[in-house]
User: Fold this.
Amino acid sequence: NVSEELQERRLSTIADEIQARNARVVLIAGPSSSGKTTFSKRLSVLASTVLLVRITFVLILMLLLIAHAN
Assistant:
C-alpha cells in the first residue's frame, strides 16, 4: 500500500532525527484513541533498543500523569 509505505518512510525519518539529536526524552501526545501507543511501537521497531526504553518510559509517565489528572 502506497500510504503505508509513505508512513513507514516518515517514521524512519523521525527515528533517525531522534537518534541524530541523541534525544533524552520523546513526548508523544494526542487525544484518546488517536494512535499514540501504535505510533510509539512502530517507531520503536525502527529505532534502537535505547530509544525503545525511552519511548516506553515516556509513554508510561504520560499515562500516569493522565491517570493522576483524572
Summary: Residues 27 and 58 are 6 Å apart (CA to CA). The mean pLDDT is 80. The chain is about 75% helix and 0% strand.
